[in-house]
Write a structure and sequence with these properties.
The complex is a heterodimer of chains A (244) and B (247). Chain A is mainly alpha-helical and 244 residues long. Chain A is built from 13 helices and no strands. Chain A has one domain. In chain A, helix 3 packs antiparallel against helix 4, helix 4 packs antiparallel against helix 7 and helix 4 packs antiparallel against helix 12. In chain B, strand 8, helix 6 and strand 9 form a beta-alpha-beta unit. Classes of the chains: A mainly alpha (244), B alpha/beta (247).
Chain lengths: 244, 247
């Protein structure tokens, strides 16, 4: 499969950047431990292990968007992507080639957070496996959103938008803050964002509940689908641009 | 009896590219035969790179048409991509991959089998004298070596047609001469369209030269033809005379 060789290159780009691995694997775990320690003195519901662990795991996935976006924007700014546009690779091959390498990063984030969760009080149960699966739609969205940003924006723009996205996700996603304190207007905004639904869905699964699970997952899947379509459309357009 | 055995690999008919009000390529008519090294010679902004981008299916022509090995440029782009390759003006390599990994990646993307991939990688590394840096990351290579790797990545796929866009731009005289020797050998295996603004390069390498001025071909033929056409002794003088006529 031709895209697999391209995916191999992108894997090496990601793995050979130690900062990305540290951010992805270590930062969410550090935050889990930190908030768990805080929870001992301030027993706020959102800091409970079954809430904070899935929240910070989903937050960790937002870095995937930034890394992918930067990788693509960097490729675009050199002639490397031009060389590949002349090759027989199709838009679908590019999407797969860029997306597949982030899967190990997503698994690393998930496993490290869930294992850390076990140490801070998340009960060991089959719900952990279901929680792992519940992250898939948001991982897909994060990857496709990153591809979308990378193909649309320059490197400096991706950096700026990526940072805003990560900060906004941390504040409006509900990872470590009860969204009820935001007020009605901001809550309406958070209801539109996929991250709040992804966090809520994974909390429902980890807790063994089932209320509105499919609605939350459905919203995230819809966002993933929309950005997948946009990414393919943009790649198709970029590959045969009238303005290049 | 004379047998006409010329196979036309690239043919353009009034090929035109406009960017808004700017006509970058203006009714280009080219015919490149198999085995030829054809140079497009022109100043910066003459339309050389835009021509290469159209013929390598990167951008759509505004008007006109072209065929590459008989395949229509617009309708059979995917087929054309299988038989061409490009070494872009800027060195287009994966900087965090080694020389070997770069060659393997591009060979895989073009669908070479594992067996032929290994053979071709060794062949390219030997041809472009990259043995000592085989396992070094591309970002630490000198400019000349990076350019050699870029051309090796274009050649490893055994293209029928090779586009070299300013292949020696930015290289020192020694690196340039080394690359010329390699390009001369490439003529045995591929039809080459090369763009350059170096007169001596066009003179040294080309079977035919087309002088491009403001998107149009003002003169084309062998170097000898151009000298006769302009009544000059050197290609540089011929080029200047053609530019002065245009002015």
């Amino acid at each position: 499969m031709k895209y697999s060789y391209f995916a191999g290159r992108n894997s090496k780009e990601i793995l050979r950047d130690p900062l990305s691995l540290i951010l992805a694997g270590v930062l969410p775990v550090v935050l889990i431990v930190l908030f768990s320690l805080i929870a001992r003195n301030a027993p706020i519901e959102v800091f409970l292990p079954v809430n904070i662990v899935p929240g910070l795991t989903v937050f960790g996935f937002t870095f995937i968007t930034m890394f992918l976006g930067l990788l693509i924007a960097k490729d675009k700014s050199s002639s490397f992507l031009t060389r590949l546009f002349v090759s027989p690779l199709k838009p679908w091959d590019f999407i797969l080639g860029y997306f597949i390498p982030v899967l190990p990063m997503a698994v690393l984030i998930t496993v490290s957070c869930l294992v850390a969760g076990l140490f801070v009080g998340v009960p060991l149960s089959v719900n952990l496996i279901y929680t792992f699966l519940s992250f898939i739609p948001f991982v897909l969205f994060s990857g496709f959103f990153g591809i979308f940003l990378g193909i649309l924006c320059r490197e400096s723009q991706v950096m700026a938008i990526g940072n805003i996205y990560i900060i906004a996700s941390s504040l409006l996603g509900g990872a470590w803050m009860d969204l009820n304190i935001l007020g009605k207007t901001l809550q309406k905004i958070t209801d539109l964002l996929p991250i709040s639904h992804a966090i809520e869905a994974s909390r429902i699964v980890l807790s063994g509940r089932s209320d509105n699970l499919w609605i939350h997952l459905g919203v995230v899947c819809l966002y993933a689908l929309v950005f997948f379509i946009l990414a393919v459309f943009l790649f198709r357009r970029k590959m045969r641009s009238d303005n290049k | 009896m004379i047998f006409c055995n010329i196979v036309i690999m690239i043919k353009t008919r009034n090929l035109t590219k406009k960017f808004g009000d700017l006509t970058a390529v203006d009714h280009l008519n080219l015919s490149i035969a198999r085995g030829e090294l054809f140079s497009l010679l022109g100043l910066n902004g003459a339309g050389k790179t835009t021509t290469i981008k159209m013929l390598s299916c990167l951008i759509r022509p505004t008007e006109g048409s072209a065929s590459v090995m008989g395949k229509d440029l617009v309708n059979k782009a995917q087929d054309i991509k299988q038989i061409i390759n490009v070494s872009p003006q800027e060195t287009a390599i994966a900087l965090n991959l080694t020389v070997h990994e770069n060659l393997k990646m591009i060979a895989g993307v073009y669908g070479l089998s594992k067996n032929s991939m290994a053979v071709k990688i060794n062949e390219m590394i030997k041809m472009f004298s990259l043995e000592e840096v085989r396992n070094k990351k591309a970002k630490i290579l000198s400019g000349g070596m990076q350019r050699r790797l870029s051309i090796a990545m274009a050649l490893i796929t055994e293209p029928r047609i090779l586009f070299l866009d300013e292949p020696t731009l930015g290289l020192d005289v020694l690196a340039r001469r080394e690359l010329w020797a390699i390009i001369t050998k490439l003529k045995e295996t591929a039809t080459i369209l090369l763009t350059t603004h170096y007169m001596e390069e066009a003179e040294a390498l080309s079977d035919k030269v087309a002088v491009m001025i403001k998107g149009q071909i003002r003169a084309s033929g062998t170097v000898k033809d151009l000298l006769e056409m302009t009544g000059t002794q050197k290609l540089e003088d011929a080029f200047i005379r053609l530019n002065q006529k245009e002015a």
